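Hey everyone, long-time lurker, first post.

I ran two proteins through the pipeline my lab uses and got sequence/structure pairs for each. Pasting them in order. The first:
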Amino acid sequence: MKDTALHVVFGTGQVGSALVEHLDRLGVQVRAVSRHRPVRLRDGIDWRPADASNPQEASEAAKGATVIYQCLNASYTAWPKLFPPLQHGVLTAAERNDSLLVSFENVYGYGPTGGRRMTEDLPLAATTVMGRTRVAMTRLLMSASAEGRVRMTIGRAADLFGPGVTESALGKQFFPTAVAGKKVDFIGDPDLLHTYSYVPDVAAGLAVLGTDDRAQGQAWHLPGPETVSTREIVDIVEERLGHPVGIRVMPRVAVRALGLVNPMMRGLAEMAYEFEEPFVLDTTKFRTMFGGQTTPLNEAIATTVDAFQRSAELAKT
């Protein structure tokens, strides 16, 4: 029997679709909202079409929601222009429906930390265009909460990976290339510690934030597999695949040069600092408050490799 509280998930991409499935498995009444009907949505899941950048459409799509999850994203090449209106629409929907708002964020807002572990009390000191955009969006949510306009909480994760994850450092440029036995391109130092967040764990963490009142009014780092270096990730992938996977390091100067003509590479160049110093997400606060199990790294990588192998085989048929 499903819980009568309605949980509405805006965005059916890498994180949103995983969250919808997780909430449904928990027996929660869930509704997915996106501009276009998602291909991977399981039969029986309630889905509503809406352009979230339109506050009226977003509010109507979320009508009756007890909890709203903001899992939207925007094109990487136009992130600063397109993303804030999406958040504004979802924030308005939460205000009008008196819903708890759970906003999913990355960690761009912290900016370079000099290798210091990222904790929730770090200042939002971003220096990049996308980082400053993230800071402005976060502060808008915090202001709305402080003014009593909305109840909200924030869940943050590092670089994503997992089955179906393509838009990430460990996405379509990594796993499909590794499965094919080719060298993977990498920016920065692959021997530095780097946290990668596993999407099924991210979804589980967001669901906790949406169902536990202790989470409200704060930012939380969502837990996941243990942090190792990218080279160690490659070693585990090699072991699962049974063949070597080389790393081809792209010099930052080359990435910057490509960015002069390629907006995507320009965005990667400005965020390259994440791979030039230790990049470790500290999730102690979440684990101490909520506990919970996360997926061991070997298991998460094995599941991801197997999924990309199946995709490669399907592509051949």
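...and the second, right after it:
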Amino acid sequence: MQSAKGFPPVARADARILILGSLPGQRSIAAQQYYAHPRNAFWSIMQELFEIHGAYEDRLLQLLDNKIALWDVLGSSVRPGSLDSSIDLDSARVNDFAAFLDAHRDIRLIAFNGKKAAQMFRRFVASDVVGREVELAFLPSTSPAYAAMPFSGKLVAWRDALQAGEHAMSNGSRR
């Protein structure tokens, strides 16, 4: 079976929002870029909300400038294909969120890009790792496989959640 390996986090110490996907799909792994599938709405949503655009490296820097971190729940797993439903949970290796959150103490919002990311986080990450001062937002997947909601609906949901995260950013430190 084919194993998928995730990417390191994109984050600075001053990050306030952490966006979590499940695990990179085949196109992302081949390109070595988060959300590389041309029909994935992630970068279009970031452009609409934060005016993030340009080459991949430029987009990452712009995320960082907006105090947004990007990562996945899983560091690796057997995954034959790119659908979240094909992730083999028995082979799943979870990223080290205790260390990440300890190094990024200003995180106020963890936003999940899709149901699978949220489900895996709940299953594999202890609630005490996150702490009470961090809000969790469950967002519609930006994947083209999630076609039940049009781009406009995804954009509204993401805008609402990330604006709430920006509000939380102005309310003191996490610990």
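Reply from user beta_strand_b:
Welcome! Quick read of the second one: The radius of gyration is 15 Å. The CA atoms of residues 53 and 59 lie 6 Å apart.
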